TrEMBL record:
InterPro entries: AGP_Transferase (IPR051678), Aminoglycoside_PTrfase (IPR002575), Kinase-like_dom_sf (IPR011009). It holds the Pfam family APH. This is Phosphotransferase. Coiled coil: none annotated. Residues 41-205 form the Aminoglycoside phosphotransferase domain.
Length: 248
């Protein structure tokens, strides 16, 4: 009997690994619908769906390994990081899915959410007021017109697998949809700024670095309180609070 390993678990969803099978448990059936549909449309390698019986989705493990994780050391050659950038560009150039994703929220709605979250962070002494104010200022650059792309929506470094400097698969598509391409690039390089140039080289087009920095600040500000409430530590070395401090 293979050991059951808890990959991630919180009040919204859980992922277990049993041998070469991942079992994703999600009470939100619509979110799983999006994940399965996005994987079928994406022009990049994705895991094989083995079966689905709500609220459980079973997918096959991918070969290779990730380039690291947020808060941990990064691995892989410059060519591997560039290969990830090229795969992200291929996704962004694909025909749009018929729905909006996490990266597709309107600037007005996002700004209102961010302002409310910043107020809570300061009022509850979660973060210093000057740190919040500076990153809120940096985040302003994300609120600009953008051309919709096919975005992953949660393209953390731990969601992209590579082997021999080639992408073997991208996982966790429940936030996918039409959105801002630079949100994906910023999410992938969050906490690993030293590899941004390599990713952009593989991506193959000019990128507005101010917008990347804005998304780093914005995503981190919105994540800190949620992470604390769900048992994670955004103050760990290299994680969200360090990302916010780097903008000072």
């Amino acid at each position: 009997m293979d050991e059951v390993k808890v990959v991630v678990a919180h009040s919204e969803r859980a992922t277990l690994r049993v041998g070469d099978v991942f079992l994703k448990v999600d009470a939100d059936e619509a979110r799983v619908d999006i994940e399965v549909e996005a994987m079928s449309l994406a022009p990049v390698p994705t895991p094989q769906v083995l079966w689905r019986k709500p609220p459980v989705l079973a997918i096959a493990a991918l070969p290779g390994a990730t380039l690291g994780r947020l808060g941990g050391p990064s691995t892989g050659s410059p060519a591997a990081w560039a290969a990830a950038g090229a795969a992200i560009r291929k996704l962004h150039d694909a025909p749009l899915p018929p729905w909006h994703g996490r990266a597709g929220r309107s600037s007005g709605a996002l700004a209102a959410e961010l302002d409310a979250e910043c107020a809570l962070l300061v009022a509850n002494d979660v973060l210093p007021a000057d740190l919040v104010a500076r990153n809120r200022q940096v985040a302003e650059a994300a609120f600009r017109p953008w051309t919709a792309a096919f975005t992953h929506g949660d393209l953390q470094i731990a969601h992209v697998f590579l082997e021999d400097d080639e992408v073997t698969g991208i996982i966790d598509w429940s936030e996918a949809g039409q959105g801002d391409a630079l949100y994906d690039l910023a999410t992938f390089t969050l906490g690993h700024e030293e590899h941004l140039d390599e990713v952009i080289a593989g991506y193959g087009t000019d990128v507005d670095l101010d917008v990347i920095h804005a998304w780093w600040s914005l995503r981190s500000l919105l994540a800190v309180r949620w992470l604390i409430e769900h048992g994670f530590d955004p103050s760990a070395r290299g994680c969200e609070i360090d990302v916010l401090r780097s903008r000072m």
